[in-house]
User: Fold these one by one.
Assistant:
Number 1:
Amino acid sequence: MANVGAVVSSIRNIMRQDRGISGDAQRLEQLGWMLFLKIMDDKDQELEVIRDNYISVIPKKFQWRNWAADPEGLTGNELLSFIDSNEANNKGLFATLRNISSPANPKRAMIVKEVFDGSNNYMKSGYEMRKVINKLNEIDFTKSEDKHIFGNIYESILQELRDAGNKGEYYTPRAVTQLMTQMTNPKLGEKVLDPAAGTGGFLTAAIDHVRGHYVKTVDDEAILQTTITGWELKPVAYVLGLTNLILHEIDVPDYHYIDSLKKEYNSIGKKDQVDVILANPPFGASIADGVETNFPATYRCKESADLFVILMLQLLKPNGRCAIVLPDGSITGEGVKARIREKLLTDCNLHTIVRLPQSTFFPATVSTNLLFFEKGQPTREIWYYEHKLPEGQKSYSKTKPIQFDEFKPLIDWWDNRAENDLAWKVNVDDLNNWDLDIKNGKSETFEEMLDSKSCIESFEKSLENIHKLISDIKQSI
């Protein structure tokens, strides 16, 4: 198995030598479409073996195996021409795949078209491109024991995204996606949606959960194939998410390159509603001009996370379940924010809020919460659970991210709830202006007691020093 981190690092260094790539965003876009093509071809080759008469939607000439797999294959200007040519009688890879169609498999063809509509080839050196291709060929996605290698690859890429600047909105630690999915428990046949899907972490967690618990037959698998949906606005994240779903054996991902907030709110009817929503909507992100006018006037605002809450309430079926990540800024505040929370608590039973340490979404240091709710009944009481950092650890970091096994006390508590130093219950009637930023009364009292004790000790120490000083002065006189 290739050392994924080393491969991605080598590719980064190679791309830095290419004058066509300026900056991380372009480098990641370049890597995105190349990864997609390689994995698409790997999956096509698997399907050709197990399905009679299966034919790839990608023309033979442009299948990865036929132009990229040979380390001594196309290079230099010949490779660049093969990728970029727009000549009528010699269309290159991009010109061909941007206009691809397949009567036999139109949905799979549309996926390829969407990827190349939203991507570009920035590399100007065919020699450097060949080096990148050969590096990617060191990774074998077809080996079953390497099944989760893509997870490592996109973790590396996501680290690059975060380092590149304001891109961290895509990233949710795997431990968090796994917890939210397990507690929400999507079942076979239930429609699962992530309207801010990024690289597909929640959707692949849902696929693994349903397969692990409910898929027993080929027919069960066929049902699963049609019940996972994602929407993503950013092109790099979209391509990575799509690739991730294909690698998770979803033959034709229901995964779309769209701005969810542009979906006409009043047009969302029963046929659009889903059983389960799992999401980490972007917060603090800028929204497209005029997007807020899609929403009822009383809920219009410029904060993307708040608009996503309203959108998701509309997208849930009655009795539908939802788990989402929200910052402290969305669970408190006046005006529109309060009205959105009122709608959430009136339309849904917000049964649990898990409060996370500030560094959970490292390198961002924002206080975040996991909200679990069901649509159909108003909230009567809310359980809070505070997840603490492991003992002796001051924060989460690149080398010490949050781990799933840290959630064992929370999971053990989930079905047998009782108040303790980490868990407390609040009656909805006791909320002030629907404010959900509620601290643990027990631990707060204890902290206040400690503060009071330390203040008294400090004051007594100061008095001792003053008395000693006065005594010293008297003796010197």
Number 2:
Amino acid sequence: MHPTPDALIVIDIQNDFCPGGALAVAGGDEILAPVNALLEAYQVKVLTQDWHPAGHGSFASSHPGAAPFSVTTLPYGEQVLWPDHCVIGTKGADFHPDLNTDAADLIIRKGFRAGVDSYSAFFENDHETPTGLDGYLRTRGVSRLTLVGLATDFCVQYSALDAARLGYDVTVREDACRAIDLDGSLEAARKAMRAAGVVLEG
């Protein structure tokens, strides 16, 4: 019997989330070296990529008079309205050039449906529409996941919570993540992840 493979899920290390990008996470480029090192250490390696059409419903610019980082209600619930970011075909949507994308087995693109955002690597923000990642991991025999990337309190947190809900053993390596920390969102994310049984390391 082969041991169950562990998977590394690398969340959204894209130009728009790194310094100089449209939705830059402070220190977002500082995690590239530790993430690249981790990519050498795991059997199963998945990258996620935020991938929005122009005029996406989560963009503040799609809601006349709305300010970036304000909150609105969309058909699936509350939604933070973001600056335009990770628009399909733009440099901002590309992976950071220093990320070792060649190491990945799979790239999951999310948020490409114009009417619903997708923070999680597993489900869109309606919490129902799957990305296909769960099926991929199960057919690879994976039961343990380590999550790294951007941003701790949004896409990493949502991915970790969904993974725990789906029955995976989940670890988040905080030393290989960075947070937006919008109005205390980082501490709230840590509490939610711990409550769900997610292990926070680093």
Number 3:
Amino acid sequence: MTSALIVIDVQNDFCPGGALAVSHGDGIVAPINAMMAGFNLCVLTQDWHPKDHASFASNHAGAADFSMTTMTYGPQVLWPDHCVQSTDGAAFHPMLDLTSADLILRKGKNSAIDSYSAFFENDRKTTTGLAGYLHARAVERVVLVGLATDYCVAYSAVDAATLGFQVQVDLRACCSINLAGSLTKAMTQMQQAGVEFKE
């Protein structure tokens, strides 16, 4: 069975010292690097936001970081500015092995729509093209790792399962934000979608 490792958003802004740091986020880099050789394909995703992105609290007058708003596609967390295109914060962690990547997929480029999933933007209609790429490469099974477990990893995992892939999330190489119970909610959603976990 052809398998792909999908490495979600291991970028400077999601690691300690970054604009939207996940606690111990840099601790998963070495385990991810060690895993890469065991897969037929390796895909890296990269948040790549314009400065005027609608998910940034700074682009909403008076809005606080981590507050909620409603977009045309539904509820949206307003995040601190992060992973702005061509900034150091948007760059991959310097120790992440980029030489093993078969594909680097940039997401969140549309200023009007956030994009947690590697497969769909948050309107749940606009595709990133990743599913088509994986199908063209005869991938049947995907393993997801990266940042953060309860947002971009979980959304990607649920979408992959919905699209018919066998899906595993390797929790040993993930870290979560856990914003207002988001980790418990995400784990439940992944389990309901048939995602397997490795701990």
